[in-house]
């Protein structure tokens, strides 16, 4: 089946939001040489070249007025989404519903939201703009954590490289795992990071400590989630009193030792559930929870689901639209 992809271009677009997914869709043609599964077309409002936020000039194929919205409409992000051209928003409002599949990369979600195309749907965007998306369109259920979200025919993703992950997921859905794997190998990327993977790790979510002993301690926590990571044990490793350690850790990372450990353990458990067939009890021990019940409580509190259900959702196929 042929699924034409139309990419909207505008001044201030993020070039990687355009080129990343396009390389994936174009790669499907090499992986399935008997046909071109994703004919690609780029279009700007007036058909003239646009300047990306990095200064690169992109020449569209056609003006939007001449574009046919046949299957997938891809809306990239970039600085140009902050104060978009009203004519572009109106074009999306009018023509977006005609697409069988809407795909927004990064702050392209802001354009879809401005056009009313995300109302009543779950969506995401770059973590730094999730609050803005919520304020722009309260009718959108904004999830700031995943790298991409699929809600029916609408797919939204986090920043830049997440657009590649989403495109690979769509190719896998359309043409199977082997085709997506061939593209991923060619691009030297993961076959597909799961959509529910967090936009950034515990280490990135927290600030990096200025002092070397605390930086080393952050690394130790990440590499040894099953160790004794109580405040007392960590303080002894940092050669500080528990009280001094807790104050210093929070001052330098922006979070408490306990919350940092909780996030690392949850992240590690999620990765094991996603990437291995280890039993829940085995995962609980490896992630530092000790018991399956303790891990179940942590998942219920943070993710509103149980570990077994989390694994089932991860391994379930993407819903068809």
Automatic annotation (TrEMBL):
Residues annotated as domain HTH araC/xylS-type: 215-313
CDD domains, A to Z: GATase1_AraC_1 (cd03137)
Keywords: Transcription, Transcription regulation
Organism from which the protein derives: Streptomyces lichenis
Designated name of the protein: DJ-1/PfpI family protein
One Pfam family hit: HTH_18
Listed InterPro entries: Class_I_gatase-like (IPR029062), DJ-1/PfpI (IPR002818), Homeodomain-like_sf (IPR009057), HTH_AraC (IPR018060), INH-QAR (IPR052158)
